[in-house]
Amino acid sequence: MTRIMPLKLGVLASGRGSNFEALQESIEAGAVPAVIKVVIADKPQAPVLEKAAARGIESCYINPGQFAGRQAYEQELARVCVEYGVELVVLAGYMGILGDTFINKFPLRVINIHPALLPSFSGLHAHRQAIEYGVRFSGCTVHFVDLGVDTGPIILQQTVPVLPEDDEDSLAERILREEHILLPQAVKLIAQGRVAVEGRRVTILAEEEN
Ligand code: GAR
User: Fold this and answer.
1) Residues 63-84: tens digit of each pLDDT
2) pLDDT by residue (tens digit) across 114-145?
3) CB of 188 sitting under 6 A from ligand 1
4) CA-proximal residue: ligand 1, atom 12 (nearest)
5) Which atom of ligand 1 approaches the CA of 19 most closely?
């Protein structure tokens, strides 16, 4: 069934926020039927906070260190998301790891963008890992978040070549350009109700004809 209401998003980020901006621009352009209700950062100086404010989107910093443990931090994260009516949580450069306290509250409702072709080069320093391994192609992946690190069902992937002269920065830049297309595309598909998950396998359903 076609959704009429825009999908309510919560964005979690730790830094620069270029994926947040790309997503918000796609929404503003009318390409993605969604609305970002809140941006949450786990770093006080994260530029994403200012970027959200500049676009009139509510944002907050939640300090993981102020809580007794990870569970209490995740409870607070979940509480804020629920407060804003968030239906899909988008990790856009969020460098923390979320455990079952958060993930189990949003089953198949948390997605992440990773700068490599998973399951290769998960975790930190994905670009460095790809260059050091010597792969000819890398890329980016949007996947559902489960309780592993970058292990959840894959929604979309895009390849980019790794060139002989690449360093981490040049590869990161080439991949980032694709991330800015892939993440809004994945959110769009979910918002349109076109993403079906069976075990590890994700099927993208055809667009409904109106
Ligand atoms: C992006 O390249 C994203 O894929 C990566 O961090 C960058 C954030 O950039 N995420 C991860 O590595 C998650 N493990 P941004 O803040 O400009 O969107």
Assistant:
1) 999 999 999 999 999 999 999 9
2) 999 999 999 999 999 999 999 999 999 999 99
3) no
4) 114
5) 18
Q: Find, among 65, 63, 55, the residue nearest to 28 by Cα.
A: 55
What is the whole-number distance in angstroms between the Cα of residue 16 and the centre of ligand 1?
A: 8
Q: Give the pairing type, strands 110-114 and 137-144.
A: antiparallel
Sketch out the chain's domains with CATH numbers. Answer: 7-209 (3.40.50.170)
> Ligand 1 in contact with 17 (CB < 6 A)?
yes
CA 9 from centroid of its chain's CA atoms: 11
Q: How far apart are CA 134 and CA 132, in angstroms?
A: 5
Residue 131's contacts (CB-CB under 8 Å, 6 or more residues apart) are 162, 166, 167, 168, 171
CB-ligand 1 contact for 10 (6 Å cutoff): no
Q: Are 11 and 87 in contact (CB under 8 A)?
A: no
